[in-house]
């Protein structure tokens, strides 16, 4: 299985935060929590979550400023941010979206609708985790059926190589460090030596060329990691 999508919940009011965490975990997400703007920025930079649920009113650093900083930094710019606020005026909604929020919900909100909006954002950044079909050049991954095809036919990958390929195919061109691949493919709570990544990339490359294709779609970025294309 592909690693669970991770969501960072940034909310300083305990009852609100507990409801969000409960519903997100019930949906199968890996949930991280922050109760201040400063902690949210630190966690986003360290953990690089797949999505941030961000309250507007926070201690230390406001939610709107957290969003601005996340969207200004290259390493966190692509993380979807759904802003949650009691501010219902159109000018506030527009301000939130203009600062970079990908979506905006007004309190009180429907949890069902919020979960639907989260799935919409994750479908864009983590299509494999949402059962979407992935394509890159002549490689096709059917994530729901757990099958991989290349121009000449179906390929047979082990579970780890399958997770590794889907991770690379979700973001063609992105350079993944070995540590980032370890977190995404093996999980944050499992200790695996970074050299293990090289071994499995080698196996994946061999499988991708098993039918005689000369082209190796995986690019090694010396001293950093790997990218697709």
Short description:
This protein is α/β, with parallel strands linked by helices. It has eight helices and twelve strands.
Give an overview of the whole structure:
- The chain has helices at about 15-25, 35-45, 65-70, 90-100, 110-125, 160-170, 180-185, 195-210, and strands at about 5-10, 30-35, 50-55, 80-85, 105, 135, 140, 145-150, 155, 175, 220, 225-229.
- It contains eight helices and twelve strands.
- The strands form three sheets. A five-stranded parallel beta sheet has the order 2-1-3-4-5, sandwiched between helices. The protein has a four-stranded antiparallel beta sheet with strand order 6-7-8-9, covered by helices on one side.
- The longest helix is centred in the middle third of the chain and has 15 residues, at about 110-125.
- With about 230 residues, the protein is α/β, with parallel strands linked by helices.
- The two termini are about 25 Å apart.
- It folds into two domains: about 5-125, Rossmann fold; about 130-229, Winged helix-like DNA-binding domain superfamily/Winged helix DNA-binding domain (Arc Repressor Mutant, subunit A, Orthogonal Bundle).
Salient structural properties:
4-stranded antiparallel sheet, Rossmann fold, alpha/beta, Arc Repressor Mutant, subunit A, 8 helices, elongated, 229 residues, 5-stranded parallel sheet
């Amino acid at each position: 299985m592909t690693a669970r999508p991770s969501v960072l919940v940034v909310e300083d009011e305990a009852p609100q935060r507990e409801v969000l965490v409960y519903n997100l975990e019930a949906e199968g997400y890996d949930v991280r929590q922050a109760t201040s703007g400063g902690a949210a920025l630190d966690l986003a930079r360290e953990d690089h979550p797949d999505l941030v649920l961000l309250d507007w009113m926070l201690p230390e650093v406001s939610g709107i400023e957290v969003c601005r900083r996340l969207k200004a930094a290259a390493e966190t710019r692509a993380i979807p941010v759904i802003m949650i606020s009691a501010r219902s005026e159109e000018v506030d909604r527009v301000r939130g979206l203009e600062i970079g929020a990908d979506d905006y919900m007004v309190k009180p909100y429907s949890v069902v609708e919020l979960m639907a909006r989260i799935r919409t954002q994750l479908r864009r950044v983590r299509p494999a985790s949402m059962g979407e079909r992935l394509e890159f050049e002549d490689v096709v991954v059917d994530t729901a059926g757990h099958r991989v095809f290349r121009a000449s036919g179906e390929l047979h990958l082990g579970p780890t190589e399958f997770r590794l390929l889907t991770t690379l195919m979700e973001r063609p061109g992105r350079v993944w460090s070995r540590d980032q691949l370890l977190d995404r493919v093996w999980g944050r709570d499992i200790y695996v030596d970074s050299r293990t990544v090289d071994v499995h990339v080698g196996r994946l490359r061999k499988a991708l060329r098993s039918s005689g294709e000369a082209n190796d779609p995986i690019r090694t970025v010396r001293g950093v990691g790997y990218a697709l294309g």
